[in-house]
Amino acid sequence: MNRIAAVLLPIGVFVLNACTDSGVVLSRSQNSSLSTSVPIYLQGGVESRLRLLPREFVANTLDLTFGPSATATVNNLIRAKSSQFGGPCEYYRGDCSAAGESQLPQVPVGTSGRYGYMTRACDQITLVDVGVLFAVRLAVQDPTLLAVNVTPPDAAAIEATFQLFYQDRSSSSEVAAELAALIRDAAVYGAFEQWRYLLLTLCLSPGWQIL
Hints:
mainly alpha; two-stranded antiparallel sheet; globular; two-stranded antiparallel ribbon; 211 residues; disordered N terminus
């Protein structure tokens, strides 16, 4: 199997736009639907990190997108990392106080540890052909599709794959063009690897985890 490293999309970086009484208003750079840096913002002149969705949302998204083959990786690198991903406490992991209260952030922020685990999880999950095919079938709405019959993702398939991660959101024309360009770059590896490339790139993008 040919392995190709996803080229992270250089979009989603925050730039100073204007000041208000409550702090600094920031806007995104041109292509903002995906982000590959730890998202930050300034409030009252103090750097802070954007609030992210907790571990069950992230874990469920990956489970639903890649199917049963992703379960072990998701459990080990997402659900088991409660201090990085936040969410409700679990006694057996030592996340709860003696009174049964969670000691974890219910609305976590982005940290290098969290993104490190996400990178490992996405890489491991997309190495498994069965998981990639599971996601492809969802995107093209063909539950019986065989790997040998997979064709390169067209514009509609790219958008459907985008929405597996960015639920209830549509990609901008700029992001769609960037994803299409990435897929074209992977054409030499074949259609299935083009899908792997697309899925890995979207999985690695932390923008879909922003609250």
